Write a sequence for this structure.
């Protein structure tokens, strides 16, 4: 055996001496060639155009239109972004943009995984509650390092609460949308209700008049009130109930970032919703099973007469119901309380890796400034009822040209309350929604259920 | 002796081998390099040929499985930068996790409910479409069509069909004065999920059973018919016993799918109401990709892997038992 091995080795050596490459040599050569080719995939950007990679939300359906230079593929309410990017590309021929997409609820995770692998996209759109973990992990750049004299023009509450971490600005706010009470004007009129309900008692009274079984099945198919409370639309139920809790003076998070659900305000709201379902029978059961954005069809099919809706959905709702068919008002409150709203803040962040490359950082900063510019805000207003994140934009005539748009802009700017940073936010949301479902659907006791769920959430923080 | 054979039969002179042993160089001449290389090739070539497939399997299956196993012993959380080993803590937590236990029970319910219906309906359809009926190919294709659709598409479609108040089913039932809330109670939501899965996978079950049916010798039925056996006796004494291996394979494949299922529960109910219809697959997905608890999610994935392994071993044992 040993002699045979030596013999084979000698034979290979002889082959090389004779100038014949062995199989090992061939494999080595192939591996070297492969490594050399692999090393060429990321050329250094020492000159020529700078390429920026953008991670966009898939549901915006804008990346394909941008790649094909075809706005007909882009939903109308996303055209503000398409036109902004096209304007930027026309003005910055030396900057090339590439796009990748991810589902909105895994976009942050995609960015984190890419950052951990050392290859993050240069710019990412993120929800405000994700800014803090991204900044704490060191994955996004401090935008305050760039010279910019316009931060004072932005809504300071938004800049402070939604776009800053530890005093550093990490996200360029674009536009805001807010939640409020949407209502079917025709159904309210038929029921003899002249104005949208202002208090919860008003809403319950109106809801009883609006809840109807128009098909004669013994079960109403037109409901007085709807609100997303479903596990299938996490974390919207938290966002949508947050203004109700804040209006009562409560909070959904403490100063250490611990989410709260076992508070007097949470108990009051949970009881209100359970009573609407069981006692007053005005809360649409679909509230507990729906998916995010189902409101468009539920309002369109007259299943909901009134309901909590985010104003970003107004374009498709108005498309179905017409401008005269749908109204938007502040949340109802308890007497003596001020209405609050949840504001969705669209923000864009720069990866810390891009910030370390001077040319990339300069290009990315140019793009972020364009995305946060007044021009972009006005496009967002035109296509998506976007409320401005800047004071100077609020004065633009466009917000006076349309009463609804003007109302939304002022309402959102003044009541803007972004989603706060909550530790383990997804788990918190799921746990709170489960509690609401158990209380509303299965009539589990309010106090015990919220306490148990709070304990379960806190156990995960340890 | 013919001259041609003389040489072959001729023995070397006695002592010739010992007198003149072949020198190494003479040996190389006697066994040329080509032959030696062939020997080498025969040893190496098979390995080279299977290497790409082995590497792929290793990279895409073995390595991720081992990686998930290792991850399950850590507290890896995507929202934190530090990951520490935690030993068996994830498994201990899992054993006491009320939601995980509920997900396990839901998975068992889903598996038993969907498997039973798919096998019974698949068998019935296969028996019907094994007969020389008109438009047989068309019917076979139609039954298999749902399997060709992406599960997410199937889930979304059924959700919209069944959604109360605005879904087509309740719209039609309204004429009869009926309205059903398919997603509101845990039992109804679970039944709906099972029905959606049955609608999608019955065609797959039918194809597997059909393949088994076509492997049964027709002369057995002929002999049975001559002996006076009707359809039911032939089914009981010929078809079913001979289909046992096929049914076991179908059971293995469908069981593994049910245990791993994420898409249908995610799209149809989202695990609701109140997380009452979460299956292990969905629970694992939520922990890993919604809550970012990758370490804990990996522990759930390993438990799912173990369940699949146990089920497969059980089925394979029963397969060899049935062959005996």
């Amino acid at each position: 055996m040993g002699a045979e091995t030596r013999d084979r080795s000698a034979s290979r050596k002889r082959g090389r001496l004779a100038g014949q490459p062995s199989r090992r040599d061939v494999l080595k050569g192939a591996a070297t060639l492969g490594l050399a080719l692999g090393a060429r995939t990321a050329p250094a950007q020492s000159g020529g155009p700078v390429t920026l990679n953008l991670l966009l939300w898939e549901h915006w359906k804008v990346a394909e239109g941008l790649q094909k230079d075809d706005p007909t593929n882009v939903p109308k309410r996303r055209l503000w972004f398409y036109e902004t990017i096209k304007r930027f590309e026309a003005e910055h021929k030396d900057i090339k943009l590439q796009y990748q997409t991810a589902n909105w609820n895994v976009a942050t995770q995609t960015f984190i995984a890419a950052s951990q692998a050392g290859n993050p996209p240069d710019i990412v759109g993120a929800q405000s509650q994700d800014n803090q973990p991204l900044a704490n992990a060191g994955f996004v750049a401090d935008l305050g390092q760039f010279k910019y004299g316009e931060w004072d023009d932005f809504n300071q509450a938004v800049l402070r609460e939604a776009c800053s971490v530890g005093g550093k600005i990490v996200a360029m706010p674009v536009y805001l949308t807010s939640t409020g009470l949407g209502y079917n004007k025709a159904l309210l009129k038929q029921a003899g209700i002249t104005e949208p309900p202002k208090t919860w008692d008003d809403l319950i009274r109106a809801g009883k008049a609006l809840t109807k079984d128009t098909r004669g099945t013994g079960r109403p198919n037109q409901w007085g009130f709807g609100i997303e409370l479903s596990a299938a639309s996490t974390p919207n139920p938290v966002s949508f109930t947050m203004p109700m809790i804040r209006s009562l003076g409560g909070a959904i998070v403490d100063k250490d970032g611990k989410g709260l659900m076992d508070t007097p305000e949470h108990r009051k709201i949970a009881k209100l919703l359970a009573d609407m379902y069981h006692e007053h029978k005005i809360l649409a059961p679909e509230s507990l099973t729906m998916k995010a954005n189902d409101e468009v069809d539920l309002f369109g099919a007259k299943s909901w007469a009134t309901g909590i809706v985010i104003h970003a959905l107004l374009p498709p709702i108005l498309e179905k119901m017409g401008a005269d068919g749908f109204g938007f008002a502040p949340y109802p409150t308890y007497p003596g309380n001020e209405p609050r709203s949840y504001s969705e803040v669209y923000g864009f962040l720069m990866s810390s890796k891009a910030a370390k490359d001077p040319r990339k950082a300069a290009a990315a900063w140019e793009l972020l400034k364009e995305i946060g510019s007044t021009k972009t805000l006005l496009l967002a207003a035109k296509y998506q009822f976007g409320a401005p994140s800047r004071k100077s934009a609020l004065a633009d005539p466009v917000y006076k040209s349309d009463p609804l748009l003007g109302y939304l802009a002022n309402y959102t700017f003044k009541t803007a309350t972004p989603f706060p940073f909550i530790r383990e936010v997804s788990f918190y949301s799921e746990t709170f929604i489960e509690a609401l479902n158990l209380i509303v659907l299965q009539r589990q006791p309010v106090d015990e259920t919220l306490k148990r769920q709070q304990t379960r959430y806190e156990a995960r923080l340890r | 002796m013919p001259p041609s054979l003389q040489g072959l039969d001729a023995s070397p002179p006695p002592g010739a081998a010992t007198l003149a042993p072949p020198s190494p160089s003479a040996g190389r001449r006697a066994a040329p390099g080509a032959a030696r290389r062939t020997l080498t090739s025969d040893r190496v070539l098979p390995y080279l040929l299977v290497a790409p497939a082995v590497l792929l399997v290793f990279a895409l299956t073995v390595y991720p499985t081992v990686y998930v196993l290792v991850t399950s012993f850590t507290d890896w959380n995507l929202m934190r930068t530090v990951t520490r080993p935690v030993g068996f803590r994830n498994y201990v937590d899992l054993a006491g996790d009320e939601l995980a236990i509920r997900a396990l029970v839901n998975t068992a319910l889903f598996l038993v409910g969907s498997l039973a219906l798919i096998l019974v309906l698949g068998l019935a359809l296969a028996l019907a479409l094994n007969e020389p009926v008109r438009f047989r190919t068309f019917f076979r294709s139609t039954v298999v069509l749902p399997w060709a659709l992406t599960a997410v598409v199937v889930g979304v479609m059924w959700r919209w069909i069944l959604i109360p108040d605005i879904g087509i089913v309740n719209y039609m039932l309204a004429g009869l004065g009926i309205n059903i809330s398919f997603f509101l109670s845990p039992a109804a939501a679970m039944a709906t999920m099972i029905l959606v899965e049955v609608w999608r996978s019955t065609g797959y079950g039918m194809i597997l059973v059909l393949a088994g049916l076509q492997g049964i010798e027709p002369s057995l039925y002929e002999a049975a018919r001559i002996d006076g056996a009707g359809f039911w006796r032939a089914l009981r004494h010929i078809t079913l016993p001979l289909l046992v291996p096929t049914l076991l394979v179908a059971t293995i494949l469908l069981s593994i799918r049910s245990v791993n299922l994420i898409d249908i529960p995610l799209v149809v109910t989202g695990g609701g109401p109140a997380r009452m219809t979460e299956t292990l697959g969905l629970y694992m997905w939520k922990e890993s990709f919604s809550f970012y608890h990758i370490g804990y999610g990996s522990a759930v994935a390993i438990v799912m892997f173990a369940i699949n392994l146990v089920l497969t071993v059980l089925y394979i044992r029963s397969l060899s038992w049935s062959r005996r």
Notes: The longest helix of chain B spans residues 33-71. Residues 103 and 283 of chain B are 7 Å apart (CA to CA). The mean pLDDT of chain B is 84.
